Amino acid sequence: MNLFAPLPRETRRLLDGIPALIDKTFPLPGRFRSKLPSDIAELSHLLTSGRGERGLSYLGRPNLLSAYLRFFLPWNLYRLCRLLPGLGIKLRADDLITDLGCGPFTLAAALWICRPDLRALPLEFHCIDRSGPALEAGRIFFAALTSATLTSATPTGENSPWKIRSSKAELGTGRTRPAALVSAANVFNEMYGDISRCGTETLKRNAEKSAHLLESHCASPGGAESAILVVEPGFPRCGEFISLLRNALMERGHHPLSPCPHDSDCPLLDYPAGGKKPGKRRWCHFAFETEDAPRDLQRLSLSAKIPKERAVLSFVFMGKQGTARAKNTPGLRVISDAFPLPHQRFGRYACSGQGLVLLAGEENLIEKANSGALVDAAFKKGERDPKSGALLAEL
Hints:
By secondary structure, the protein is α/β, with parallel strands linked by helices.
């Protein structure tokens, strides 16, 4: 299944209305609105290069919570609404979804927006976060969202069949009944501080701890009746963490459903002879254009001097034991942008059960194989790219 398909008309309509819905739900006095772009820039700094300055209660500051709700929440909703439909998440009546580090109920809101087929299904969400203000904002925002979507809903969203229970707690504390879906979006890079400075061994230990945490919320040991979704920002250390987390979950009996087209070892953790040095490794991440993001959100991004012409993320979706695939499948998952090759040809990197692959072909064919696409290609037997060590294949 291809990932990051263009937004359907209804999903785009709802996302376009999110900035106005947030303004209506969380009114911002005019005297504070002029400072909003600088608040967004400050929060962006604290979430990226300034992690060490952030502190655990940064969303307790009203100006930063307002910046988060008006900028980061809509962008996170947009990313998830591009991702979630391509995962084919299956839920049944009365299933429980446990969302670790939920923020203002971001995953629940994204599912509501992009999966209209689930809106009539009675589902229970357990949303866990250490920030009380974020949880309270999520409760108010989700009620406003469902009220705006369901014509028969009351102003508090009481007619929605989804029940959301929130818990202000650290992620390793407290348990509920086993969940059909355990999610953690943009959590672990914050949980482990400045992940960009972590060495591989530290990342590996963090991945093993995270796998244990995620599995503790699953329906049974090994997660036979549960799915696990982890989404992280798309920069190198997060991509490496995702690959290590995939390994740790596989050792516990879980199997990758997406983006991996195979159950073999991750080809991005180790390179064959002749490949890049460890410090030059590629990482599993996906990028897509944001031309269909809400216009008001794009304008706000420009005013904060944080333009977002593309969205980038790393993720893994793990599933039931009975869904394991063969070690090698013909499908290759495209994991890079297009780049020029000699002799007026173009290429993209792809993931396969046989290892990292360099896809080559005519420019028009390579351009159509977007990041996240699942494609078939003919391998060039015994040939490798001298620069990366990747197998060679013709698209």
